[in-house]
Design a protein that fits this description.
Blueprint (H helix, E strand, L loop, with lengths): L1 E3 L7 E3 L5 H5 L8 E3 L3 H11 L5 H19 L5 E7 L4 E8 L5 E6 L2 H11 L4 E9 L6 E7 L8 E5 L2 E2 L3 H11 L5 E5 L2 E2 L1 H10 L5 E3 L1 E2 L2 E2 L5 E2 L5 H6 L3
Parallel strand pairs: 3-13, 6-7, 6-9, 9-11, 10-12, 11-13, 12-14
Antiparallel strand pairs: 1-2, 4-5, 7-8, 15-16
Bound molecules: uracil.
Uracil binds next to helix 7.
Length: about 240
């Protein structure tokens, strides 16, 4: 059952367990996938989905959620220990990140919105961009730009795109990236759907996915349902 929330907000609040659908999801159907069910992420995502949400707020919310997704996606980064001077003493075994800088790769153009948030919490990350557009007839991804940092073999790469829809762009981006033999790769998105996860997992079973939600399905036009519409248009105010 749905009840109206406070008068000030037209958002509908489900009684009982918030996010029941996400929590009850058979995660065995989605191997190598993490859904970030943190209440702040889920609340902000619902605000983003609303069609009334203006561009500036959509952008801010994507940035905020991306920071929280980055927290999850980086939880297994390797640490080493260093000796440092605090104002009062020498500290041995202070944990610091090990190895070469993390690489964030944004799939243009909506991936830029995720990069903004991630760079807030990993400011020294290196950044790459992959430009892909969707052929609206075949829904296939066509590459028009590729620029990523060097020495990927020694680095962890987070590939970022808000919407894992057909999965074609994600697979193309990962195919291309893997030619450079990156050390480890994860795919970070805001919304996924069963079809996209299946396509991605079949092509790249070794690539973990971090997402804020797995929606119901893809429609015949390649949009995620219920989704949030065209992420690029909503982020940049085009349409
Ligand atoms: N890309 C989007 O921006 N939205 C969708 O629903 C699917 C793909």
């Amino acid at each position: 059952m749905c009840v109206a929330n406070a008068i000030a907000s037209p958002i509908q609040v489900e009684t009982g367990l918030v996010c029941r659908a996400q929590k009850d999801m058979r995660m065995a159907d989605y191997p190598n996938t993490t859904v970030v069910l943190h209440p702040l992420v889920q609340h902000k995502l619902s605000l983003m989905r609303r069609k009334e949400t203006p561009v500036a707020e959509f952008r801010r919310l994507l940035k905020e959620i991306s920071m929280l997704l980055a927290y999850e996606a980086t939880r297994d980064l390797a640490l080493t220990s260093a000796t440092i001077e605090t104002p009062v003493t020498t500290m041995h075994n202070a944990p610091v990140l090990d190895g070469k800088k993390l690489v964030l790769v944004g799939i243009l153009r909506a991936g830029l919105g995720i990069l903004d948030g991630m760079l807030e919490i990993v400011p020294s990350a290196r950044v790459g961009h992959i430009g892909l557009y969707r052929n609206h007839e075949t829904l296939e991804a066509v590459e028009y730009f590729y620029k990523v940092p060097g020495q990927l073999q020694d680095r962890t790469v987070l590939v970022c795109d808000p919407m894992l829809a057909t999965g074609n762009s994600a697979v193309s981006a990962l195919d291309r990236l893997k030619r450079s033999k990156p050390g480890a790769v994860k795919f970070v998105c805001l919304l996924a759907c069963p079809e996209g996860l299946k396509t991605l997992h079949e092509a790249h079973p070794d690539v973990p996915v971090v997402t804020a939600a797995i929606d119901e399905r893809l429609n015949e036009k390649g949009y995620i349902i219920p989704g949030l519409g065209d992420a690029g248009d909503r982020l940049f105010g085009t349409r």
